[in-house]
Automatic annotation (TrEMBL):
<dbReference type="Pfam" id="PF02176">
    <property type="entry name" value="zf-TRAF"/>
</dbReference>
<feature type="zinc finger region" description="TRAF-type">
    <location>
        <begin position="101"/>
        <end position="144"/>
    </location>
</feature>
<dbReference type="InterPro" id="IPR017907">
    <property type="entry name" value="Znf_RING_CS"/>
</dbReference>
<keyword id="KW-0175">Coiled coil</keyword>
<keyword id="KW-0479">Metal-binding</keyword>
<dbReference type="Pfam" id="PF13923">
    <property type="entry name" value="zf-C3HC4_2"/>
</dbReference>
<feature type="domain" description="TRAF-type">
    <location>
        <begin position="101"/>
        <end position="144"/>
    </location>
</feature>
<feature type="coiled-coil region">
    <location>
        <begin position="192"/>
        <end position="243"/>
    </location>
</feature>
<dbReference type="GO" id="GO:0016874">
    <property type="term" value="F:ligase activity"/>
</dbReference>
<protein>
    <submittedName>
        <fullName>RNF41 ligase</fullName>
    </submittedName>
</protein>
<dbReference type="InterPro" id="IPR001293">
    <property type="entry name" value="Znf_TRAF"/>
</dbReference>
<dbReference type="InterPro" id="IPR001841">
    <property type="entry name" value="Znf_RING"/>
</dbReference>
<keyword id="KW-0862">Zinc</keyword>
<dbReference type="GO" id="GO:0008270">
    <property type="term" value="F:zinc ion binding"/>
</dbReference>
<keyword id="KW-0436">Ligase</keyword>
<dbReference type="InterPro" id="IPR013083">
    <property type="entry name" value="Znf_RING/FYVE/PHD"/>
</dbReference>
<dbReference type="GO" id="GO:0043122">
    <property type="term" value="P:regulation of canonical NF-kappaB signal transduction"/>
</dbReference>
Amino acid sequence: MGYDIERFVGYVNEGLLCSICRDVLEDPLQAPCEHAFCTACIHGWLVHHSNCPEDRQVIDVSLLRPLYRYMKNDLNRLQLHCRNREYGCEMVCSLESIDRHERECEYSQIPCSNAGCTVQVERRNLDGHLAVCEYRSRECPNGCGYTILSAEDTQHNCVAELRTELELLRSEMICRVEEAKHEMESRLDSQRRHMVQKESILQNEIEELKSQISRLMSDVRSLMAAERQHRQELEQAELEKREL
């Protein structure tokens, strides 16, 4: 369906009217025969027909194209009233910007955001309605902290609510303690495994050092034995020298 022609200010060219609903084109498409339609109108027409509603030429959805640019520009420049005019909005703007304005219009009827409330109010009055809405959430006046969501909730039992809240807190605390315990145990196990690995590495290094020391001591003993042999040979040579 198109835009109601009664909303527009001034003359609207016949070529900018939908050939089916006869209102101003909305999301327009054009047939090869150059007749223009609202997208919703022509799609609905082609469900039961296979021709143009104006000249009866055969058309198909695949043959529909966007409106010529100059026609699109003419369409976008048309001035029209906000759809909330009956509620007091006096805004007149171009068709190109009307959707943006109406999404933010202070006179738009919007539903209350409180669950269970079916009231619709103007956007500008929403804050005032929320302040007095019987479905608004508020805390119990007796100080128990319970959130009142409806008129029935005002009859709640504060002691029972506090007991329930206490049980929830106790359960949450127990869960957190268990989580902390498991996390600590996991960390300790990880550290223990790391220490065992380090101990094994150090033990291997100690054994390697012992082996190296043993080899060094063996080399030292060999050198000392060689030195004694060399000294004995020198002494023997000295005796032979004296005898000569």
